[in-house]
Structure to design on (1890 residues):
């Protein structure tokens, strides 16, 4: 496929893109037209349909994948697509991965690795709780693999929730062997569930935006509720164990001002908070480096890190 | 009954007190004895059983109401009870109100007033949710009337949860008529439920201390979960309405650093936060004045109010 | 009258507007012209006088109401008025309310209500102090009714100071009956005077901007001084009462970092702070909703509330 | 005179001390006695009157200077005075300086120096305002020389207000020559007036404690009011100048959270804040060194300086 | 050996203890005596030499190991040793480990492990720098193995600096494999050096207290200086590499308010900060659990963790 | 010379400017050209070389002083220089002072004054240390006189480091006579060295930007290291004195959150912090006034001073 970043002025294209935004407007002369923002994984492109009612222009909605025919022009220093023909693309005609930011890593392999961690949990109730989501729930694996862990910031891409969850789980696994006082089963389970509320806090791609529920409750509360509801379906699930697990989820941001209603009171909650923080910060930094234009080692002041950031030189 | 504050040195008493604490110890000579802390609503009293195995001393536990016979002595400037005989008192022999700090107001009248507010809620799902707890749940009214709203600080007495809930609800009622943009039904419902999680966060009197669940989850999370579980039992309860109500509960502390995982995003959540804060602060101040010894108008520096506090003079 | 929001390109108008700003400039060709910003309550309009010295253009100043004749043109996507004739309008030709943001409520009714509260104050010195401003001082009522309570933020409109003062007073009235320890006379008086310093901190409409005195001293200090000076004119006004009243004014922002030089030390100062905060925040939120374009329930992140804000749904 | 620090067990004394505290009590046997705390500048002494009604014991009150005859005994490791005879001392029999903490410096010389600064102010209204207090007001000089600048912390001794005022004024004088943009007359005047409100915020020695007015209003507000009232008595005193001067007083703590209702907006207000802070901190440190027992160079953690503090070694 | 915790009243002992403190005093009768505090790893013991000049009492100093003969008595509820004979013990007569808090882990094995990490560093200058301290410097290994990492808080025991350094290094090693963008050589080197300044900030055991240099400069500055001085002795050590390494040391506390003069600007500095924080917090929690008396799962409010802390239950 | 601020449209100029920035670009037609930013002390000017390869255009680099011939045109409301001929200027052809912001004061006189302070230091090691930099080091005086004290903020001009250092030293001299407990020699030495690290933290003019070392270590650490290295070259320099001096440098920002790794623990460190802060803030304010356009006394909100700032009126 011809990616947006590869387009050149003057060429005629015939391609499928994701329609990110769609707005109706009037020309100065009072004639209606449509203004679109098209997207693929390499960037976005302004596009116009000057003749919305014409024969070749089918109906479509925002967030549809659309097959367009048109000419690449230039307007005020940026490219613009003048659309002549348009139809909704069928599933199968396109690969969503071409249109969305994606994890660099193999999503299926990561899910396998996560299942391995689940199988290493020996406490039966925790194991059952984990499997009820990750193994037994229809469609869960697919949804979990596709979700992002953020609207922007770190891991805001397809597979991001899985990649972050796995990163935190591995870090917790390291902690469990380094600090023997930790209960590995509780810690691994908490790590795997810690951001599960993001499945409802953020809508799925391509929208990947906060839901109404997400804004009102937040993924911490939603995640604790998901675990609570499911544990309630497992006969005999110990109440104290449910509370400890929910506590780890509630406290994983570490500080009240970061949205945790409780500070860590258990060693596992503290370890989860440290692991989550480490994975989030390292990935945030990685994305900062990745997105820099490379003209300078010093990347400029980062508000997140409250410092000018620099690549380390060759040693 | 003869209250602890009324005892004088040398008298023999025959009275029922609450046994707040109980510890076994050894005299210097190596002889075992029992050291107790007795309590009624006027204060506490140190007591000793020098002969724990003797005939007149029955078995009992901490937090039992016990009938004791003994002599009031003085040790290092404080009274001490030398217990000769002891037995567990039967329910009916004593009034818990004599042993616990209580609201100045009539608990039953306040509950009536609260039911009046419930009947003023016209939105059917909210009304049903309220009634399922306050009207239909067996034993709920009794438990709610007896509970405190805090371990110490404000409203830390029998009936305190009810008094505070009613105070907040009335303040919200005022807001609803003063600021017409507020949805009165949602606001009144949220006010009545806002601290319901305290029923599980704090154990009932006479213990009135944080429970394990309370420390791990906190009354905000517990309250939201109680509402969630009950709403799930009401067919057709709208998900958005449940989320709005839970949001009000989650956000009622107003700031993340005060333990709310979300800041108020709805007008009703903001109003609830303002009403809760006002009732809590006014009552905290009232208790400060009540507990001062009255020797000076200026009460000294209060850490809660970050100021020296003074009674207002006669005008 | 033809409001600015109703103008269309190409029409010739003959209307009175408020001249908010006036600047002399030179065209590229070096010819002098005048650039104005006109205002009415529906918005602002850029205007040009290309021929300042011509016959039909009379003298005028910034903040004058001016009668203009001219053509509506369009420049860089915005309307512009090309002024042909201009004269200062006479008082009586226009209604200031048409040109300034105004309270939705009836200003005279609100003042009546405030006078009712004043009459309810029974402590003679406080009553006398209140009446010396609100009843006896020539021109005070007119000035007080016309003033805003802010340059922007909440209650920044004609009648805003009165509306906010009344809102706070009513809330204090509620507190006085809900919490009997409060001295109602002191509290009501403090509520009515709490923002009186804004009469000098902000210049009157149409300017409605910080005065030199306002920036140097602030309305808290100015208000306390106004009360001090007037109390000094009332023979026998008790010094302690004056200090208590001034304390309420000084402390009404509640926190040192919000500009109060003292934290509340009296119950009435605390109640006033709670009432002021509640009225300010509820009105701020109301204005946020009112000014939103209505395209979405979620209004976006509000820096004041540190949260995305949303309208409550229909229940 | 025989100072408290010089007493030895067993001696009979006949001396005048300040009676700092006085309390009536009962012996275990139920006999009334008086318990006093006596004070001179070297320390305090516990004293008892076992026979309050006896012939040689005259009437007296707390904070009286009293002539006592009695025996020095020892009780629980501390000296105690057993008073046999007691009468109120007459003014003239004692020197207050012997009983109160005093400035090391000559109070009269310092006042002379301050008058010199006043004479250096050339702006007539400011000069007149200064002289109306420091030169013309009857009793002002005496009061100002005797006052402290604090209840405890820095300059909490007789002459402390004068010493601190002079220190700040000198520092401002340095600033005025170092930074020519400063208006020396305004700055010197503001420096001399900056803490004048302490005359009312703190009661005079020997009490030296916060007054009711002081707690309700604070010395910043009181000082601004004093300047306001006096300026009002000087015909033609320019309003803007009064506001600038009051602004300097209001802003001299530099930060809202330190009790200034306004941050410095004028260069002179900034300079005054810097000078005040420098003199206060240097003196606080000096008192810390002076009060240390000298056993170690490191004095231990100081909460004011948030650091362990050490004397500088010999270089 | 007979440990302090094992002593019983009335026995005569003949044992070596560490003399933690030594003070000369006078009895009430004016006779000189010596008051000592003796220490071993199980606790401390008050001791008296009532006849300091007698034959059997040799000269000795604070922090000497002393062989004492004496009787165990009881005074005000605590044991006291009445010393009859005393001499300084010779090195070899005692094991310092018996007298000081020690790491639970094998110090020599940990040092071996650390050397293994040093050998894994491939960048020649960094390797040389590490070896110059840990391998080549005479006496360094002994000193490093014996040092603590804190006066109190976490790792405040013999071997503590080594145990913490190794813990941080291992965590960094984990990060280096989990986040490939990290330069492992720089990160491992920085981890090993990060707290090296504690060798001078804290005096060695048994004193283990802040040195003058430590208080004036802090271990961060001292550590950077040690690395700077040593790098200056290695011909050709790249200046940029030295700066990166020093930056990691300077920034390892992560926040300015925790004493780092720079926030992390390099990925390795960030990783080191995360690893240091994780090891410090996990160990702090471990020590909290270890030092609790075990009567309750909830250990009470911890100021460090700003939460009540609880052991996790059996799962 | 013809300054940039004096250029008019249409003239041809022949002048030397500093080339601040240089970028290669392509016209829409694909033809390469050079885009420059020229600078003198009156401002900056956009310039283009449309024919980079032509005969009259010599080679040059960013930050070269270049002699240009060209025409002043106007583009989008700003002047632009169309360069026809260009060559690198020779040293001697231009005065750097014409191209860079400079101190208003005489740099040589200020250096003399600083040397006077150095000669007033009587402690031999400190005197020797000072002279080793300011008197004996080749090229040091020239470098120190030319350096700025900041990239922007206060004293960000040629001679700024010297001017600020002298201002702080004078203020410290005032403190030394006002507060006799201060050790003048240590204080004056610390004042002179306090910002010496800026010589490496910032590159010299015309670049005047943070260096790599500056960003990684900061001027506080660099300055302490410079003093450490030099003291190491002076035989017998007392270690304690070096530590005290380095402490003053480390602590001169006064607060950890301002980048000092230690809070002031010595009186001299505290005095230096106060002096540095005073000079920095007064100069910052002076520059604010200087850079204002003078249309209003109130300059608008200053984020540094957290206040609207105003010039003081004529008194």
């Amino acid at each position: 496929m011809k990616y947006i970043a590869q387009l050149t002025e003057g060429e005629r294209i015939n391609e499928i893109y994701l329609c990110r935004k769609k707005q109706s407007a009037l020309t100065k002369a009072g004639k209606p037209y449509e203004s679109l923002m098209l997207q693929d994984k390499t960037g976005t492109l302004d596009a116009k349909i000057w003749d919305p009612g014409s024969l070749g222009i089918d109906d479509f909605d925002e967030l549809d994948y659309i097959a367009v025919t048109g000419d690449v022009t230039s307007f005020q220093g940026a490219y613009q697509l003048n659309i002549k023909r348009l139809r909704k693309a069928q599933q199968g005609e396109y690969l969503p991965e071409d249109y969305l930011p994606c994890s660099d890593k193999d999503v299926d392999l990561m899910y396998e690795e996560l299942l391995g961690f689940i199988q290493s949990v020996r406490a039966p109730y925790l194991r059952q709780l984990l499997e009820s989501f990750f193994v037994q729930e229809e469609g869960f694996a697919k949804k979990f693999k596709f979700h992002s862990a953020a609207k922007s910031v770190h891991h805001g891409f397809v597979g991001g929730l899985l990649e972050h969850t796995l990163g935190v789980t591995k870090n917790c696994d390291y902690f469990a062997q380094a600090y023997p006082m930790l209960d590995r089963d509780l810690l691994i389970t908490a790590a795997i569930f810690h951001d599960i509320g993001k499945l409802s806090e953020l809508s799925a791609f391509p929208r990947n935006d906060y839901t109404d529920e997400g804004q009102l409750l937040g993924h911490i509360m939603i995640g604790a509720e998901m675990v609570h509801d499911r544990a309630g379906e497992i006969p005999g699930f110990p109440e104290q164990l449910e509370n400890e697990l929910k506590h780890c989820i509630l406290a994983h941001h570490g500080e009240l001002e970061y949205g945790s209603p409780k500070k860590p009171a258990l060693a596992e909650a503290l370890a989860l908070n440290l692991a989550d923080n480490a994975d989030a910060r390292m990935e945030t930094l990685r994305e900062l480096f990745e997105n820099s234009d490379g003209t300078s080692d010093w990347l400029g002041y980062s508000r997140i890190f409250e410092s000018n950031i620099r690549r380390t030189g060759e040693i």
Notes: Residues 189 and 251 of chain E are 14 Å apart (CA to CA).
